[in-house]
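We now fix the convention by which a protein and its fold are recorded. The integers have meaning only within a learned vocabulary of local backbone shapes. A complete example follows; check for yourself that the lines match position by position.
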Amino acid sequence: MHVTINVDDPEPLFTQLIRQLKQAILDGHLAPGAQLPSIRQLANDLELNSKTVAKAYRLLERDGVIQSKGYRGTFVHPEARSNCQTDLNQWVNAQIAELITSLKEAGVTDSEIRIAFSNAMNN
């Protein structure tokens, strides 16, 4: 597995890592069940903060691309290839865009939408 992180790229570092790990799985470079480096090891190898790698691993685990087995390590999920196709962020963005369109069609102002969104996130 070869991962290259570009700190000058506007894409967030954790997103670059997620994208490249998913691509390695889709290309067959990482097979289901393959063990991944520990968060600390990968952070050291890529010269990243361990919190950046931890965030990427957490999101990949949420999406069913990898699975943590406690002290034994982190592994590629058995269903990783099909789960790589799922992009929860893209789905969330589409849902929010659809809701905003509906609200604007109903005459709600941008300011009202921002306030309502902020209130919903804080509650």
